[in-house]
Design goal:
Methyltransferase, Methionine Synthase (B12-binding Domains), Chain A, domain 1; 12 helices; alpha/beta; 314 residues; single chain; Rossmann fold; five-stranded parallel beta sheet
Length: 314
């Protein structure tokens, strides 16, 4: 379906900022690019939850404060079944810098680890959150992009609780469904904005298939084979999640820079497997010819991803 072009207001990333310090809030707001970000400053917890509930279908990233109150905030967001990309502002990075200079670890890694450990958590909101310090405000745009990128790769089955308490299964399932909807909304929005802010297509070459170790390549191929098998098995059925399955397969292949010839090989290996099974059952394998449509459909999606990843000329 043809979609109308995004208006300048809609093309901006919508950012919700809720920090306990007005000074930090203003300092952070001043460092955001207001041509690229629609900045929403919230000053009270009641105003924050009201704003999120009203705007969660349009919000692209939250910026929260890494204080002890963060647990209550994220717990309530989970209760609302709301999952969004998030940047968390932790304590000063001075201690992290000192540790890094002593050769213990990188400043960014240390500041993140200490900030989370300060609250006694493995994570506060979800495992794709990005922690920063006030010293990193100048690069806030990059950290927002990273938070969105990591959110897009967040598994729908991710763990949402840091505690061992009983999980509300209905809330958990609702949150995971919302996560998938948000990932699709964000990816669609960012694909439409390619050339303006190509967050979605900033692939890390270190994750490319050709640079993986032998073990990593084998694991990647096994993952792709599993995902493609699920596509084939549901392709001619009434599976409402088929498009999502294809998207997940194509995303995995795209970010690993998998060649279309590799997809063809995966398809042919699977068809050989099915043909052997049909032969054992004494049935004709003519039906497998129909699955050429599956291959064409999948490769078309992948080619479109690669096409969109090429920056448009001004």
């Amino acid at each position: 379906m043809h979609q109308p072009p995004l208006t300048p207001q809609r093309s901006k990333l919508s950012i919700g900022i809720f920090l306990e310090s007005e000074t930090l809030t203003q300092a952070l707001s001043q460092r955001l690019d207001h041509d690229r970000h629609l900045v929403n400053l919230i000053t009270s917890s009641s105003g924050f939850f009201s704003f999120v509930e009203q705007e969660k279908q349009r919000l692209d990233c939250l910026i929260l404060h890494g204080t002890p109150d963060l647990l209550q905030i994220t717990h309530r967001l989970h209760g609302q079944a709301t999952l969004l990309p998030a940047v968390v502002v932790g304590e000063s990075g001075a201690a992290a810098k000192q540790a890094a200079e002593s050769g213990q670890t990188a400043p960014e890694e240390t500041s993140t680890t200490q900030a989370v450990a300060h609250l006694g958590l493995a994570f506060a909101y979800h495992t794709a959150e990005v922690w920063i310090t006030t010293e990193q405000f100048n690069a806030i745009g990059d950290y927002i992009e990273r938070a969105i990128d990591q959110f897009l790769h967040l598994s729908p089955t991710c763990r949402l609780s840091n505690t061992l308490s009983t999980v509300d299964l209905a809330t958990d399932v609702t949150a995971q469904n919302f996560l998938m909807l948000q990932q699709r909304r964000l990816s669609d929005k960012l694909k439409e904005r390619l050339g303006y802010l190509s967050v979605y297509y900033k692939r890390n070459p270190r994750h490319f298939f050709r640079y993986m170790t032998a073990v990593q390549r084998q694991e990647m191929l096994e993952q792709l084979r599993h995902e493609y098998r699920e596509i084939v098995l549901s392709y001619f059925g009434e599976d409402s999640a088929l498009n999502q399955r294809i998207d997940e397969f194509v995303n995995s292949a795209f970010f690993a820079d998998i060649a279309t010839s590799q997809v063809v090989e995966i398809h042919m290996d699977l068809m050989d497997e099915f043909a052997k099974q049909l032969k054992l059952e004494g049935r004709s394998d003519d039906i497998l010819l129909d699955y050429r449509l599956t291959l064409i459909d999948t490769i078309a999606h992948l080619c479109e991803m690669y096409r969109r990843s090429v920056p448009r000329e001004a």
